Amino acid sequence: MRVLHVVPAVFGPDGNIGGAERYAVELVKALRRSADVRLVSFGDRAATVDVDGLRVDVLPGRRVRGHPFNRVSARIVAPFRWADVVHCHQQHIVSSSLLAMLGRLTGKPVVVTDHGGGGWDLSQYVSTDRLYAAHLHVSAFSRGQKGHASWRRAEVIYGGVDVARFRPAPWTGPRRRVLFVGRVLPHKGVHDLIAALADGPALDVIGPLSDAGYAQRLQELARGRDVVFHGAVDDRRLEQAYRDALCVVLPSSCRSDYHAFTPVPELLGQTLLEGMASGIPAICTDAGAMSEVVVDGRTGFVVPQNDPAAIHSALGRLAGDWRMAEAMGRHGRERVLERFSWDRVAEACLVRYRAVAARDGARWAIAPW
Known about the structure:
About 35% of the residues lie in helices and about 20% in strands. It is an alpha/beta fold. Strands 3-4-2-1-7-8-9-10 form an eight-stranded mixed β-sheet, sandwiched between helices. The two termini are about 20 Å apart.
């Protein structure tokens, strides 16, 4: 089977360090063991780039209304013709809508995974949902948010984590440092995590300070507490930070004093998976899909949104009983291996690709290619 993956930008500093881009790269790396697969993206000029050992073909694309991650290029037709199945990453961009319509015209199945975000597109005016042969959601929360809970063509295929990169280190005793990883934005709830520290563990914050005003408020809130803002770090430092931590915390919320309402704070919770794969417990709020990742009381704790006291209590339990923390980390690693490895994700995607290829080709064709 020949599968074409299309993502808005190349993953990395020359493109975008985003969830859609990382997801596409990791999934294609896992799929190439079982299928003939290509990854195509868009940029200012044609190029072939290497991303973590994976070839990515960059097509020169025109920006739609100036958006760097919403581009179109007539050159996408050639790889489209090559493929048996097309998998778009991001629904609400022009290239995905055009590929979906081309798929309907030719009888070639085009599936989509919506990672949130997007740009100006036809889907702002009319629903493009039924143009796609299947919607592969990264969580049940995502499927529900899209109104697809009862759709036969909508399926949950969770995101994955590299279980070779993110691996445990032996617990030799109590650990003191708590870890947050991600873009430091108001809806991520870092202010609640800092407020929860009190006289408890220390905190390492890894990730870009993407909102200058919010970052300044966090610096003021952290004064007098053991909080270190590391900014972005390389992969080796990140992996080691997970292995050394007491736990990873993702306290995202839909609404707080620092930001307006956010209906989709977390479509999955990638950093929770990375922490669990690294053998440490995870603490998250009940926002978005995170409770689908963390099993409360077994792989960590799920606490209410906007509740520093609940985070403080969970941190205290882990800091006060390192053997319980170790056991939770072990259960988290087991859960990741069972449900969230990229091999599992690739296997589930292949099943779906074969199903839509067998079911939809003849039925959807309006004209031969």
